[in-house]
Amino acid sequence: MIVSGRTPTRACPERTCVGCRERAAKDDLLRIVAVGGACAPDPRGTLPGRGAYVHPAPVCLDLAIRRRAFPRALRAQGALETADLRRYVERQPVTP
């Protein structure tokens, strides 16, 4: 029997962080959606609408806000409120 070069395990989906622009596994990033003019965290990935991904770290969040990446990635008109998102990210445990 000839086996192709494919691995038997499924590939892990990757996404790009809108803050640092690095690719990472989807499970390592936090999905963000626009809800009523504000950025809302979607840790389970079930909220409807277009999503943007960011590392759940204050550094990447600050970069994304400074670059105005959320309105562009979410295709929103005007600025989006990020205060609730910042509180959510700051409450997450720090991983090395």
Describe the model.
The protein is of the alpha+beta class and 96 residues long. Helices cover 24% and strands 22% of the residues. It contains 3 helices and 5 strands, in the order βββββααα. It has helices spanning 58-66, 69-73, 83-91; strands spanning 14-16, 23-25, 30-35, 38-42, 51-54. Strands 4-3-5 form a 3-stranded antiparallel β-sheet. Strands 1-2 form a two-stranded antiparallel sheet. It is globular, with a radius of gyration of 16 Å. The N and C termini lie far apart (44 Å). 21% of the residues are buried. The model has no long low-confidence stretch (mean pLDDT 90).
Please name the defining characteristics of this protein.
single chain; 96 residues; alpha+beta; three-stranded antiparallel sheet; two-stranded antiparallel sheet; 3 helices; 5 strands
Quick description:
With 96 residues, the protein is an alpha+beta fold. It has helices at 58-66, 69-73, 83-91, and strands at 14-16, 23-25, 30-35, 38-42, 51-54.
